[in-house]
Amino acid sequence: MGQKINPLGFRLGAIQGHHSIWFAHPKKYSEGLQEDQKIRDCIRNYVQKNMRIFSGVEGIARMEIQKRIDLIQVIIFMGFPKLLIEGGSRRIEELQMNVQKELNWVNRKLNIAITRIGNPYGQPNILAEFIAGQLKNRVSFRKAMKKAIELTEQAGTKGIQVQIAGRIDGKEIARVEWIREGRVPLQTIRAKINYCSYAVRTIYGVLGIKIWIFADDQ
């Protein structure tokens, strides 16, 4: 049978870099991992609460965390940075205070930077949020998938595969539906594939969205 593997982990060390860069003693490793997750959750919650959501999309593509002894640097890659930048540096300072309060740091400084991404809909996380918003608004899943493919084609990608699983359209029996456009060479390590899995809560239950985007050959 086909063996499935996360495309990002499969390419680590070849063409894919880590999203968290730090060293820890083996006994402290799990603490550092949980800390990373808390930072990411806290930033996402802040964006959801305080921003006027643009077409149902938060616009966070990914977050990179770099840790030193006395400093934690968080770089947020956003497709629509005006969601955070509109309030000027005040918004970012408020976000930093929120994260520091959540994690009770005493001797560590937190620095948050925002980087804009050129083609937001070429990023699977932003695309998954778009599809999730459509499904919550009771749009047909096929329509939502086709619209997502149109958006990625405008972003200039070479191929995309979208998969939705669960009680689609409220049917009693859960099933998996998928659609592919262009090339998605999952076995080629040299191929730059962006991937994400995203859970969306609908009134029928939880649906899982998976997106593979073939960006370029390295």
From TrEMBL:
GO cellular component: chloroplast; cytosolic small ribosomal subunit
Highest taxon in the source lineage: Eukaryota
Tagged with keyword Chloroplast: yes
Domain KH type-2: 43-118
Alphabetic keyword roster: Chloroplast, Plastid, Ribonucleoprotein, Ribosomal protein, RNA-binding, rRNA-binding
PROSITE patterns tied to this protein: KH_TYPE_2, RIBOSOMAL_S3
Coiled-coil region list: none
InterPro entries: KH_dom-like_a/b, KH_dom_type_2, KH_sf_prok-type, Ribosomal_S3_C_sf, Ribosomal_uS3, Ribosomal_uS3_bac-typ, Ribosomal_uS3_C, Ribosomal_uS3_CS
A molecular function GO annotation: rRNA binding
SUPFAM superfamilies: Prokaryotic type KH domain (KH-domain type II), Ribosomal protein S3 C-terminal domain
Main location: plastid
Biological process according to GO: translation
A Pfam match: Ribosomal_S3_C
Subcellular localization: Plastid, Chloroplast
Oligomeric form and interacting partners: Part of the 30S ribosomal subunit.
Family listed: Belongs to the universal ribosomal protein uS3 family.
Protein name, per record: Small ribosomal subunit protein uS3c
Gene giving rise to this polypeptide: rps3
